[in-house]
Amino acid sequence: MHPTLQPGDGLVAVRAGRPKTGQLRVFPDPRHSRRFLVKRVGGVRRTETGVSFEALSDNPDAPGVTDSRTFGWVPAAGSYRVLVRVPGAGN
């Protein structure tokens, strides 16, 4: 699968709703809280502590890729739903 986002793309994201399979979500990297990741929701589950989601890379074979296969499921609290991709906005 080709990546949905390219270097330099901009995003419009809002803290809204529960994650749904297939959505793009922005969230703090569980290993480096000052860095944010953008991943596709692979699955959603509810536990007694809240809702969490599986964060999957669109290109899992890319060098240096990191996603839920590395750091586990992500709490939905503190994540943002990507609404719009703006191609090349960061260039």
Automatic annotation (TrEMBL):
Q: What domain of life does the native source organism fall in?
A: Bacteria
Q: Which GO terms describe its molecular function?
A: serine-type endopeptidase activity
From the UniProt record, give one GO term of the biological process aspect.
Answer: signal peptide processing
| Cross-referenced SUPFAM superfamilies | LexA/Signal peptidase
Q: What is this protein called?
A: Putative phage repressor [Acidothermus cellulolyticus 11B]
